């Protein structure tokens, strides 16, 4: 909760006038407990997870001729019922996550040290933190993913996620509960090591979720793919091959950038 009784008091503490973004943030968060702001993360992710895969799903059902030329595995069609099953199973977790966040907030606040008030972070600070978070998350996720492809890890945990040899957007979160728990560690590592403002945290988790949905979409659109613009960016084609190989796969473990696969010779 912002510790200022008025906008004028906030500006006096800042020693300058608030930007339009800071003024909007002040109005939104001034009377809101920090625990509720913390829980916004789960609500935002739920909305993104619900909406982002829908355009491709709708086009598959009503305009397949438009979209199927870009499908990476055109011979495999994921039934609509299977996609909806993924969504329902994953969506059930979100209300539980909100409750857990509320109960664990005092401890989480000490670990994350997330800023909630003013000033808002600069664009430079936000971008720098997002780059650090992305590189760190990729490195840790790479090794956890390789561990999950050992015989024990695959048979006991990771095979659930690989039920889809041709993935779909909603399948991004379709995993064993232990896998979801393990892979949350790399995503949280950056904000724990380099604390940020809550708005940066929302942005980081949103970007990571959208990217996860994208690489599981099963489609590659060359005219809008970031793989041509961002060095070491894998994209949907890179991860789709990993699902295609399934339990036999010993390559393409990276979730976002491919530098670990390149260094450790597991890129294909």
TrEMBL record:
GO cellular component, one term: endoplasmic reticulum membrane
Key words of the record: Endoplasmic reticulum, Lyase, Membrane, NADP, Transmembrane, Transmembrane helix
Domain Fatty acid hydroxylase, first and last residues per copy: 131-266
Subcellular location: Endoplasmic reticulum membrane
Membrane topology: Multi-pass membrane protein
EC number: 4.1.99.5
Catalytic reactions of this protein: a long-chain fatty aldehyde + 2 NADPH + O2 + H(+) = a long-chain alkane + formate + 2 NADP(+) + H2O
Pfam families: FA_hydroxylase
GO MF, one example: aldehyde oxygenase (deformylating) activity
Keyword Membrane: yes
Transmembrane portions of the chain: 35-59
Enzyme class: lyase
Domain of life according to the entry: Eukaryota
Membership in a protein family: Belongs to the sterol desaturase family.
Protein name per Swiss-Prot or TrEMBL: aldehyde oxygenase (deformylating)
């Amino acid at each position: 909760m912002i510790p200022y009784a008025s906008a004028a008091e906030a500006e006096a503490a800042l020693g300058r006038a608030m930007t339009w973004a800071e003024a909007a943030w002040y109005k939104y968060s001034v009377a809101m407990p920090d625990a509720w702001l913390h829980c916004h993360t789960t609500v935002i992710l739920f909305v993104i997870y619900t909406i982002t895969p829908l355009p491709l799903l709708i086009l598959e059902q009503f305009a397949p001729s438009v979209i199927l030329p870009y499908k990476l595995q055109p011979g495999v069609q994921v039934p609509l019922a299977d996609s909806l099953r993924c969504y329902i199973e994953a969506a059930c977790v979100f209300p539980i996550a909100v409750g857990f966040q509320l109960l664990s907030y005092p401890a989480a606040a000490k670990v994350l040290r997330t800023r909630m008030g003013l000033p808002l972070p600069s664009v430079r600070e936000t971008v720098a933190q997002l780059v650090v978070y992305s590189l760190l998350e990729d490195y840790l996720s790479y090794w956890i993913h390789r561990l999950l492809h050992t015989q024990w890890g695959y048979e006991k945990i990771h095979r659930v996620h690989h039920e889809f040899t041709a993935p779909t957007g909603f399948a991004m979160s379709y995993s064993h509960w232990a896998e979801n728990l393990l892979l949350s560690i790399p995503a949280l590592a950056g904000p724990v090591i380099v604390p940020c403002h809550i708005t940066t945290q929302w942005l980081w988790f949103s970007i990571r979720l959208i990217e996860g949905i994208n690489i599981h979409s099963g489609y590659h659109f060359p005219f809008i793919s970031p793989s041509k613009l961002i060095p070491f960016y894998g994209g949907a084609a890179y991860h789709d091959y990993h699902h295609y190989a399934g339990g036999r796969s010993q390559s393409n473990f990276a979730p976002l950038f491919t530098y670990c696969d390149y260094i450790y010779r597991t890129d294909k």
